Amino acid sequence: MYTRRQFLTSTAAFAAGLGLAACRDSAEAGMAQSTGKAPSAAPPPAPALPGPLNTRLIPGTGERLPVIGMGTSGSFEVGTSTAERAPLREVLRRFFAAGASVIDSAPTYGTAEDVLGPLLAEQGLRPKAWLATKLSGVTGREEGLAQFNDSLRRLRTDKVELLQIHNLGDLKTQLALARELKQQGKVRYVGVTHYVERAQDELADIVQAEKPDFLQINYSVVSRGAEKRVLPLARDLGVGVLINRAFEDGRLFAQVKDKSLPGWAADAGITSWAQAFLKFALSHPAVTVVIPATGKPDRQSDNLRAGVGADLDQTQRQSLIAQFA
Fold first, then answer.
1. Would you say the C-alpha torsion 139, 144, 146, 152 has a positive or negative sign?
2. Which of 121, 182, 246, 252 has its Cα between 20 and 30 A from that of 159?
3. How many structural domains is the chain composed of?
């Protein structure tokens, strides 16, 4: 079996080849622009998954979503250079090649929307994307509407699948605006978000009162507070759930760097700690999609493997929890 470190080491040569291919493709694209001739070669095929990516129903609508999505905070907050954007282009290519679709962003994630929008547009990937963004850090209807319209511009789209009220800010006004935009057809679903356990009771109260289409909250093998109220409530009320911080912002990897995977991992199709952590979050029955962020193609391929195969059973979940006891 492989740890995440071994997985990444084994794919280093492949990633290097992709980097060379990206440089070659960029040069050929420039030549094609000046000569009118098409590039001579397509990118190499994305690494294959061991099976199809699992999907789950959005409660209340019957629409199915692939269980592994991706976030953009940090990972897509880059500049305009080829060196910064080429890996993200490959991250997206592998993501969609695997059948994934859910991408979560926010106007307050630095340049993330400015980067994501053009990368989707240049590869013709917007029709395959299930985009989630947020009303974030604004007060009043006009500020919220202006921010939303700016997000559409930055994302190079005329609508998004999910509009969330970020961290419950100016909730009443922004939630009303989000619902208005839903009625106009510019938004398909409306949600509320937070990212820390101390806010989960407040989030649960709001979900109970407002019954949004989605909620987004943190949940991991070491941060399981959402199990108390938020996740059971979402399941009872038919609210979709996006999970953030399943890796604890990367801190979980430092805690297991010298540990082997549990003995049952191979039988569960798990070849890295990243897959184990993502499968843990996905094994809660209320969870719809987990959205790990990465700007590295090999880690994207690793993450996507967590969406294949069976969920963890209770014994396997407890075994992972025990790693951090």
1. positive
2. 246
3. 1
